[in-house]
Amino acid sequence: MKQKITLKHIARELEVSISTVSKALKNSDEISDDTKEKVQAFAKLYNYKPNNIAVSLKNKRTKNIGVVIPDIVHHFFTTVFRGIEKYANEQGYNVIICVSDESFDKEVINMEMLNNGSIDGFIMSLSAETQQKNDITHLKQVVDQGTPLVLFDRVTDELECDKVILNDQEIAYEATKKLLKEGRKRIALATTESYFNVSEKRADGYRQALNEYGMEVDNDLVLVLPYNDIQESMIEDFYDRAKVDAILSVNEIFAIQCISVAKKRGMKIPEDISFIGFTDGLLSRYSNPTLTVVAQHGVKMGEIAAKMLIDRVESEAEGSIEDTYRTEIVQATILDRESTIN
Amino acid sequence: MKQKITLKHIARELEVSISTVSKALKNSDEISDDTKEKVQAFAKLYNYKPNNIAVSLKNKRTKNIGVVIPDIVHHFFTTVFRGIEKYANEQGYNVIICVSDESFDKEVINMEMLNNGSIDGFIMSLSAETQQKNDITHLKQVVDQGTPLVLFDRVTDELECDKVILNDQEIAYEATKKLLKEGRKRIALATTESYFNVSEKRADGYRQALNEYGMEVDNDLVLVLPYNDIQESMIEDFYDRAKVDAILSVNEIFAIQCISVAKKRGMKIPEDISFIGFTDGLLSRYSNPTLTVVAQHGVKMGEIAAKMLIDRVESEAEGSIEDTYRTEIVQATILDRESTIN
DNA sequence: TGAGGTATCGAAAACGGTTTCGTGTTAATA
DNA sequence: TATTAACACGAAACCGTTTTCGATACCTCA
């Protein structure tokens, strides 16, 4: 096991000072070409790499960004993360990831773990519990301390910071209109508990479209499903009590399960009933019939979030403080597949 | 924006030395109870948290572990990562993740980025390209430098280090035997190019079972599919040229696609043909019929990998060098679902 | 009374870099 | 020849901790 080589070693070996070595490696013009060559050759030979930790301590910049997300075994978050990681790496940043597991406490603990110099800024999406409790003192604290923060997807209006969101309401409106244009009369909404910010906005878009077509929003047509542990009977009951000819689902799984039950009941898709779901994951692509979806462009969202964060980090480093926070909106698109009529 | 408070600030304010503050906060018995109380109260009041970077520089330990995986939008890797993150966090470690994107170059660059003091050790799974080229000099370099390294799933025999793998061959043997016991006579193997270590081992298990039942391994029954961009016609052609009554697939997607084509051809599942796939992801659970799978227990694999790494990191820190590398084997299990006869 | 012990604290080195400023040498200029 | 500027380099401070090694003051006991 070879010892990691440091400036000190090089300096001793070449009988020059540490400062000379440091400067020579940076090609400073204070140093003669002769010594530069010597030092650089030696450094290359022994594969010298500056110690990141030492550099970070000196610069007060780590080139690490912290990402806190509710779940990692989850297609949407994964794609966003992909975008973050991609952009960050291109800019020479590393990404430290923590999973809050939809838990408020874990979210708080994770952020405290990271916010002691380990990272230059946060990108995060709120946990379910945090949205439910609506307690964001930990976020405020981070922002107060001057740590840049970018929220994506599951955001909150109570905090002033940079944000990246989907045009949820608008695209839900578009999706619903697409179903209406198919001639659907009894369009259902499959959704989660309402404390999810995004679900609420999607529901708004759904209602807006119905209203525009002069339709009443029938509460019997709203199917609220639990986040986990969905029983088929819930969907059966729903089909029993509500005549339905289309379903807009706030996620992929709900849609797939509704399709599955519909098929068992002998309904023809998309003739008798059509489906649109949010999230362009594997399920939608490989289901039978394939599912028409709202593509959320997670990678793009992640890239934008990373860019916003890094821009802010670097501008703060240069002392030019921009104090206006921005909210970027990613335009979702509808991907037509077999579960709707085209 | 409040300045981050340091030992120096506390020391100045309380008119004691930095060392006293440091010791007081650690409850050292060199310090009187009086001063301890004063210092601790002040620290709590101003929410003092030690700067991680400075601590890392001093201890030469970062409490960060680096994870390099080929893909993040991928169920198996995601679950493994979940296990890593879970165990690591419990032990007070953070996880820095880099995605190699199945590219050799990115893998090398990522590892170089991290291996300059940013992390205490690596957990990784080889990229496709790395396996293909069979070039692992970058890994050897890391190990030579004394950085602990744990390989999982996509490992290599050419490197001595800790490893965590699945009992791929054995479970493929079991799965194939399960199909044989169903009375299947023409069992196909849907697989990737052979340079994937794990695919090769699964193929071995498949052959072993066939041999045990006195069957020839018919090369017409091996369907090699590309990693991306699978055309349905490839599967159509396969069904055309080979009479098949069961398929063992090295992943989920191949199985799902084979099922889809089989259904279109009017084959009854599992009566006419049965399926087993590797990876217990969403697709298998929500497909129609649901897919019998080999569960790889990614979370457990991740936890084991993290434990192996952290154990080694900490034992090295204590100077007690264990020089025997271990290979842990995770036992896969078969989850019976609708695509096979039970 | 003086040696030794204990309690409490501070100075300083160290981790591995970056950066400012000063200094000695040489060469150009008045 | 004396002054000065350019050149090449080193000393030292600094980032925020931890930790070793005194140093002082007070106390105890022979």
Automatic annotation (TrEMBL), chains A, B:
One Pfam family hit: LacI
Stretches assigned to the HTH lacI-type domain: 5-59
Keyword annotations: DNA-binding, Transcription, Transcription regulation
A GO MF term: DNA-binding transcription factor activity
Cell inner membrane is among the record's keywords: no
Gene3D superfamilies: 3.40.50.2300, lambda repressor-like DNA-binding domains (1.10.260.40)
Keyword DNA-binding listed: yes
PROSITE patterns: HTH_LACI_2
Protein name: LacI family transcriptional regulator
Lineage: Bacteria, Pseudomonadati, Bacteroidota, Flavobacteriia, Flavobacteriales
